[in-house]
Recover the amino acids of this structure.
């Protein structure tokens, strides 16, 4: 009703979720009501949180950070919050996101934060990003991590991954081996 009163007419939550550019006023209204919606209908709240990824302008993520850190929400719901924090336009969270990945307990919801490191990590260059990824690799070596290695890594990072093969599952070894091969090909192409 508040969205409608502010001139934003949606028939249902799906329409909000499918909006490609939430305006700041819409974001403010969603954030205002989010804790109440989580208390009443967690699925609807999860959909609204994920809709914030399409915010047109940066917004204050304090409420989402508080919910991520202190709420009794399950890991699936916190993953949605983490994904939004990683991908949405927010105020600077570089210190927070790195602290969560370095010092927080390795958990499903923190895996979502890894995807935000290239944009949200506050790294000055690809080398700084890759050095950080190496530090957290043992705690967060999933497909997202491997994609980041493939995209931003160089020959030395391929060597690092090669050394880690013996610690990975057979499925992860297969994925990591493909990434290593791709990184080495990219390096050869760049050196021509």
């Amino acid at each position: 009703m508040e969205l409608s009163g502010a001139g934003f007419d949606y028939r249902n939550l799906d329409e909000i979720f499918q909006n490609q550019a939430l305006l700041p006023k819409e974001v403010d209204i969603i954030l205002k009501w989010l804790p109440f919606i989580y208390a009443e209908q967690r699925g609807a709240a999860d959909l609204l949180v994920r809709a914030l990824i399409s915010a047109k302008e940066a917004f204050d993520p304090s409420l989402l950070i508080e919910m991520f850190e202190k709420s009794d929400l399950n890991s699936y719901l916190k993953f949605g919050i983490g994904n939004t924090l990683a991908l949405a336009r927010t105020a600077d969270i570089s210190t927070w996101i790195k602290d969560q990945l370095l010092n927080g307990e390795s958990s499903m919801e923190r895996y979502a934060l890894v995807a935000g490191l290239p944009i949200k990590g506050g790294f000055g260059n690809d080398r700084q990003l890759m050095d950080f990824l190496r530090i957290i690799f043992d705690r967060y070596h999933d497909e997202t991590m491997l994609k980041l290695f493939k995209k931003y890594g160089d020959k030395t990072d391929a060597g690092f991954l090669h050394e880690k093969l013996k610690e990975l599952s057979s499925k992860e070894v297969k994925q990591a081996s493909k990434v290593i091969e791709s990184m080495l090909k990219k390096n050869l192409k760049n050196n021509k």
